[in-house]
Design goal:
Elements lengths: L3 E2 L10 E8 L3 E9 L4 E10 L2 E8 L6 E11 L5 E11 L2
Antiparallel strand pairs: 1-2, 2-5, 3-4, 3-6, 6-7
Length: 94
């Protein structure tokens, strides 16, 4: 019924983690990963997705140890109004 972004699992992780989110309606979705400096590290999703639960895996095999942030921007695919912008923190430990 609601937009939701869950905490990645496992956290801390090495080198693979899973990010789950929920879309109550068809949505334009952008799921991106940033480092502590705010630099884009990876784009995990960028497009229109149907309603439902989603699960995305990030393999950080080439990334350095440290704190990363993942941000989900999701908006109604038809109305275009912003519905969810949420950021969460995760820790990559080697």
């Amino acid at each position: 019924k609601n937009f939701a972004l869950e905490q990645n699992y496992p956290n801390p992780f090495n080198p693979v983690t899973v990010i789950r989110y929920q879309l109550p309606i068809a949505s334009t979705v952008k799921l991106k990963i940033f480092n502590l400096l705010g630099q884009l590290v990876a784009t995990l999703s960028d497009g229109v997705e149907d309603a439902g639960y989603r699960e995305v895996t990030w393999n950080a095999g080439k990334a350095a140890s440290g704190v990363y942030f993942y941000r989900l921007n999701a908006r109604d695919a038809f109305m275009g109004s912003e519905r969810l912008v949420e950021t969460k923190k995760m820790l990559l430990v080697r």
